[in-house]
Design a protein that fits this description.
The complex is a heterodimer. Chain A is of the alpha/beta class. Chain A has a single domain (5-141), classed as Rossmann fold (3-Layer(aba) Sandwich). Helices cover 39% and strands 20% of the residues of chain A. Chain A is globular and about 35 Å long. In chain B, strand 9 (311-320) and strand 10 form a beta hairpin. In chain B, the strands form 3 sheets. A 5-stranded antiparallel sheet of chain B has the order 2-1-5-4-3, sandwiched between helices. In chain B, strands 7-9-10-12-11 form a 5-stranded mixed sheet, covered by helices on one side. Chain B is 49% helix and 20% strand. The chains are: A alpha/beta, B alpha+beta. The A-B interface holds A 14-15, 17-18, 21, 25, 102-107, 110, 130 and B 200-201, 203-205, 207-208, 211, 230, 233, 260, 263-266.
Chain lengths: 143, 406
């Protein structure tokens, strides 16, 4: 699992392209991009990715949390990408954590590195970067 | 002396003033109107009235003698006052009362009347003694004062109502103004939100574009552009979150921007020091000042600490002598000339540092031109000094700026 297969669920093109670029620079493979919760759910079922990035606000409304809860049932690894992490439920809907927007090159690279290490061989060896907020459940296991 | 007899004597004295009983003489001659009635005769008639009484009422002695006093009353006399007098006299009590009386010619006067019963040695009621004082002027004055007081109270009432009306008007206008202001604030927040989003899109485009550029120096230029766009984006992010879009706090913003820049540089070996006073500027000055801070901090990050040399960047925002001063100081390699404007950053050793690093603040460098030009735009003076070690740059402007740039 050195190369992660990733799905991005995000309603805006530029942040999606940007995230895809960062992921590909880090050697991972983006297998699809969806703009709504339903589209995302379907795409995940089809492509069986290792990791799903989900924006809180999607093209069909504030449906990011609903999608994440659905993906938790299917034991998928989810990371939120949002500018407004205060709108997340207390349990982060089962997601690993949050990458805050807007992305900075340095911030997103460090966050990806940390997440990949955590997924492959938890807990991550590198320090948690400020650009990534860990979910309360993982706070105990990854620290 | 038997009272009946005494009365006869005084009666005899009518024509001979000054003789006989000196008390009777005094009653006749006093300026105070006085009369005496005989309650033992039918209808309590006047048996004596002095000259002052005749003068007050306009009657002759013959016209009043033998009559009951009620001829002094008229249509406007208060019946309650008449009843009170009647009650007192039938009970044989004295009474002091103000009553409206009439003269012979029909004119009215206010009479402060005092009636007292006179008893003989056997305790029988034999006379009523009455004195009158014309208090018309006093009553009129009192009425005038009361009318004046009423008029004054009405005026106060009217003014109070006017004031309350004006106050309510003012409050209503105030409420309207503040809700209009709130609406304007929301509108400006929305504008700033969109501007911020568009700037972030531009930033994303620059990032994606630069990824495909193989030439490191071009990529470096694009990164500089990216940082400038992100600094502007940060200004609008702060503005759209602010409750008062007419003011922009430089201190907090500078701290945030500097932290972001240092974090983005992945230079964990560079420490930050802040000394911040709250300094507010109008939003139109926020963007140019933010760009200046961005240039100076990124310049220090890129050129002051070569080859992973650790160091410190100190940022201060102060109010001194009516001026705002932003100072950005590093303890890096410093400027080539060591002092004054136009000095270039010293490269680390001759030809050792990269050419662009050593020359970044040289004459004609874009970063420095940008800082100088933006400084002129916001009417600030910029000073570049050697800090030994390192470089200090100071941006200073008067806090209540005059002229078009404000």
């Amino acid at each position: 699992m050195s190369v992660l297969r990733v799905v991005i669920v995000e309603d805006e093109a530029l942040p999606a392209m940007l995230l895809q670029g960062y992921l590909e620079d880090a050697g991972h493979q983006v297998v699809g991009w969806a703009t709504t919760a339903d589209e995302g759910s379907e795409l995940v079922a089809q492509t069986n990715p290792d990791l799903v990035f989900v924006d809180l606000h999607l093209a069909d409304g504030l449906t990011g949390v609903k999608l994440a809860q659905e993906l938790r049932q299917a034991s998928r690894a989810v990371v939120f990408v949002t500018a407004n992490s205060r709108m997340l439920p207390d349990d982060y809907a089962g997601a690993l954590g949050v990458i805050s927007k807007p992305y900075s090159t340095h911030g997103i690279q460090r966050a990806l590195e940390y997440i990949v290490q955590g997924l492959k061989n938890p807990p991550p060896r590198c320090a948690r970067p400020s650009s990534f907020t860990l979910s309360p459940q993982l706070e105990e296991r990854w620290h | 002396m038997e009272s009946k007899e005494a009365w006869k004597i005084t009666g005899d004295l009518h024509v001979e003033h000054g003789k006989g009983d000196p008390f009777a003489a005094a009653v006749r001659a006093t300026r105070m109107p006085m009369l005496i009635t005989d309650p033992r005769r039918d209808d309590n008639p006047i048996i004596f009235a002095n000259d002052a009484f005749l003068k007050l009422t306009g009657y002759t002695r013959d016209e009043v003698t033998g009559r009951n006093c009620r001829f002094l009353q008229g249509p406007l006399t208060d019946p309650a006052a008449i009843a009170a007098i009647r009650q007192a006299t039938s009970a044989g009590r004295d009474i002091n009362i103000d009553i409206l009386n009439y003269r012979k010619d029909g004119s009215m006067f206010w009479n402060s009347l005092y009636i007292s019963p006179v008893h003989n040695e056997q305790g029988e009621l034999v006379y009523f003694f009455a004195s009158q004082v014309d208090i018309t002027e006093r009553v009129n004055e009192q009425q005038r004062i009361e009318q004046e007081k009423e008029r004054f109270e009405r005026e106060v009432q009217r003014r109070t109502e006017e004031l309350e009306k004006a106050l309510a008007e003012g409050r209503r206008a105030n409420a309207e103004l503040s809700s209009a202001l709130q609406a304007q604030n929301l509108l400006l927040n929305e504008v700033d939100h969109r501007v911020k989003n568009n700037l972030q899109m531009i930033a994303s485009l620059i990032v994606m574009q630069s990824r495909n550029i193989p030439d490191a120096s071009i990529r470096q230029s694009l990164t500089s552009m990216l940082e400038r766009v992100e600094a502007l984006s940060a200004v609008h992010r702060r503005l759209y979150k602010s409750t008062d879009v007419s003011r922009f706090d430089l201190a907090e913003f500078s701290r945030e921007l500097t932290r972001d820049l240092v974090n983005a540089s992945s230079r964990s070996d560079i420490s930050l020091e802040f000394d911040l006073d709250p300094v507010e500027v109008s939003p139109d000055r926020a963007a140019p000042i933010a760009l200046m801070i961005n240039e100076l901090v990124t310049n220090s990050l890129k050129h002051a600490f070569l080859e992973d040399r650790p160091g410190k960047i100190a940022l201060s925002v102060k109010r001194i002598d009516g001026h705002a001063t932003i100072t950005i100081e590093d303890d890096g390699v410093g400027m080539r000339d060591g002092d004054g404007d136009g000095a270039s950053r010293r490269a680390q050793g001759d030809g050792n540092g990269s050419a662009t690093a050593g020359m970044e603040y040289g004459k004609g460098s874009f970063g420095k031109s940008l800082v100088e030009a933006l400084g002129r735009q916001v009417r600030a003076t910029t000073r570049w000094q050697a800090a030994n070690p390192g470089t200090r740059v100071e941006i200073r402007w008067p806090l209540q700026p005059k002229g078009p740039a404000s």
